[in-house]
């Protein structure tokens, strides 16, 4: 397995793979890898095939954090991440010290999908996400890029970026990996201790209730879900919404093709989740 830290070295390798006609599949991560990430890596390995190349990027991207404290708290476990990648047959780990030159002043914004939900609660987040993903696409030159379904709005924004900026990359979506109680796997889960971890299970409980109540009016359903979650003493809801899966616009009726989006704070830890209805 190659360990690459320089953007220039990464680009040299990608050009060589391109010349050799090898299929390159990218899994962008911020590290602190868990079973959810491994499910993406396994999908990438399968897509690449015997002659292809799987690249896992590990980079805690500062530009997508609107809270500097959150950036500092983000877990960094690069040595362990590399061992997990090696065990899964990854061909290259790209873990740059930085992807931004001194004085960097160019970024990418999206002015439709990114303005609501996470974009409203985390100003600048999606500009940071799109900019770093675009840089990774340029450096790695993947045929496919594999993302998890948990960050559903992020996937929608990146899909729009690929379409509008003509990136020759196919986006592959993998279902959310979950804990035994249904909580979506996340690097943030390690910060949920004791009663907070117990209370966090109310998010998958809300998803189950929504699926059972899909014929209810959307407004009534949203109120029920918010009451359910905020019945937990340390849970506060940022948003509960039912949207069209493509446009992310709120809908009045939950039908096939609609998506439930959730975001809530469990103590100091902010969690997001989603599900098809």
Protein described:
It contains 10 helices and 9 strands. The protein is α/β, with parallel strands linked by helices and 277 residues long. It folds into 2 domains: 2-174, 3-Layer(aba) Sandwich (Rossmann fold), CATH 3.40.50; 187-276, Pantoate--beta-alanine Ligase, Chain: A,domain 2 (2-Layer Sandwich). A 6-stranded parallel β-sheet has the order 1-4-3-2-5-6, sandwiched between helices. A 3-stranded antiparallel β-sheet has the order 7-8-9. Helix 6 crosses helix 7 (152-164) and helix 9 runs antiparallel to helix 10. The longest helix is centred in the middle third of the chain and has 16 residues, at 125-140. It is globular, with a radius of gyration of 19 Å. The mean pLDDT is 96.
Sum up the structure in keywords.
single chain; alpha/beta; Rossmann fold; Pantoate--beta-alanine Ligase, Chain: A,domain 2; 2 domains; six-stranded parallel β-sheet; three-stranded antiparallel β-sheet; globular
């Amino acid at each position: 397995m190659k360990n690459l830290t320089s953007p220039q070295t990464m680009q040299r390798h990608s050009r060589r793979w391109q010349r050799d006609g090898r299929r390159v599949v990218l899994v962008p991560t911020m590290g602190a890898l868990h079973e959810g990430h491994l499910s993406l890596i396994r999908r990438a390995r399968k897509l690449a095939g015997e002659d292809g190349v799987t690249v896992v990027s590990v980079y805690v991207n500062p530009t997508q954090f609107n809270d500097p404290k959150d950036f500092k708290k983000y877990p960094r476990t690069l040595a362990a991440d590399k061992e997990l990648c090696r065990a899964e047959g990854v061909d290259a780990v790209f873990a740059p010290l930085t992807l931004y030159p001194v004085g960097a002043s160019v970024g990418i914004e999206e002015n439709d999908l990114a303005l609501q939900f996470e974009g409203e609660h985390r100003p600048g987040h999606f500009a940071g996400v799109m900019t770093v993903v675009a840089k990774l696409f340029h450096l790695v030159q993947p045929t496919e890029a594999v993302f998890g379904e948990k960050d559903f709005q992020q996937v929608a924004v990146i899909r729009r970026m690929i379409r509008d900026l003509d990136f020759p990359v196919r986006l592959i979506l993998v279902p959310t990996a979950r804990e035994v109680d249904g909580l979506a796997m996340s690097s943030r889960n390690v910060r949920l201790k004791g009663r907070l971890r117990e209370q966090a299970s109310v998010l998958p409980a809300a998803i189950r209730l929504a699926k059972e109540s899909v014929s209810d009016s959307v407004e009534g359903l949203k109120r029920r879900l918010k009451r359910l979650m905020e019945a937990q003493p340390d849970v506060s809801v940022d948003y509960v919404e039912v949207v069209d899966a493509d446009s992310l616009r709120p809908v009045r009726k939950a039908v096939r093709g609609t998506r439930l989006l959730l975001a809530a704070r469990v103590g100091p830890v902010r969690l997001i989740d989603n599900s098809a209805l």
